[in-house]
Amino acid sequence: MVIAIDGPAGAGKSTVARRLAVSLGFTFLNSGSFYRAVAYEALQRNLDISSVDEMIHLAKNIDIEYKNARIILNGKDVEDSLRTAEIDLAASKVSGVVEVRHAVNDKMKEAVKGMPIVCEGRDMTTVVFPDAECKVYLDAPIDVQVQRRYDQYAAEGKFVDYEELKQQIATRDAADKNKAEGSLKIAEDALYIDTANMNVDQVCEKITEYLAKCDKNR
Ligand code: DC
């Protein structure tokens, strides 16, 4: 069974998807971390992020494993190094390259083949798992998105400028909605949830209720 969740940055996708996966005993797939892994490796190797050819070559040849919802890159667990402002920017760029997306999609599908999963990203409901039994789109107004990311950084001891963060998130969301392939959109058959005034428990509860309906329709 596949539960697919899409939405913009800061809509709560990762937290919700991870929690649902734990409660259902499913595997959690964070697709953004695969793009982040490609970006991480490009930066490590000092490659030119704007070179489409270099990024395609890298994405096709990179060795990514996904174990316990953690990215293992060339045998090394890099999960905790994937969320920096530099990688935010680089991952946004590399994920705009269609052939990089194809390579990443292949790796992701291989990593979770045959497993029941809760996955999240931008094109899980539309491109990667179009036949998912349960589809959800999580949304939030920009100021809620920014506040959540700000709090997330603060919890990690990182203090960023609010307005700068807002600008970065708005730019990344616009880029995500305008990709040639795999752009962020609401699937026709997805449950739309505006999470602005909801906490994580409430969102999970709503999805769990919906899941019962999805199950019945199978
Ligand atoms: O969800 P995230 O912030 O970790 O994603 C990192 C980047 O990858 C972000 O710029 C959006 C992009 N992405 C994508 O294009 N498609 C996905 N399925 C997941 C993420």
Element layout with pairings:
Blueprint: E1 2-6, H1 13-24, E2 27-30, H2 31-44, H3 52-61, E3 64-67, E4 70-73, E5 76-77, H4 85-94, H5 98-111, E6 117-121, H6 124-128, E7 134-139, H7 142-155, H8 162-177, E8 191-194, H9 200-216
Parallel strand pairs: 1-6, 1-7, 2-6, 7-8
Antiparallel strand pairs: 3-4, 4-5
Helix pairs in contact: 1-9, 2-4, 3-5, 7-8
The chain binds 2'-deoxycytidine-5'-monophosphate.
2'-deoxycytidine-5'-monophosphate binds at residues 9, 31-32, 35-36, 91-92, 95, 121-123, 172, 176, 182.
Describe what you observe in this structure:
The chain has helices at residues 13-24, 31-44, 52-61, 85-94, 98-111, 124-128, 142-155, 162-177, 200-216; strands at residues 2-6, 27-30, 64-67, 70-73, 76-77, 117-121, 134-139, 191-194. With 218 residues, the chain is an alpha/beta fold. It folds into two domains: 1-26 and 116-212, 3-Layer(aba) Sandwich (Rossmann fold); 31-115, Rossmann fold (3-Layer(aba) Sandwich), CATH 3.40.50. Strands 2-6-1-7-8 form a five-stranded parallel β-sheet. Helix 7 crosses helix 8 (162-177). The protein is globular and about 50 Å long. 2'-deoxycytidine-5'-monophosphate (DC) binds at residues 9, 31-32, 35-36, 91-92, 95, 121-123, 172, 176, 182.
Feature tags:
218 residues, alpha/beta, Rossmann fold, 2 domains, five-stranded parallel β-sheet, three-stranded antiparallel β-sheet, 51% helix, binds 2'-deoxycytidine-5'-monophosphate
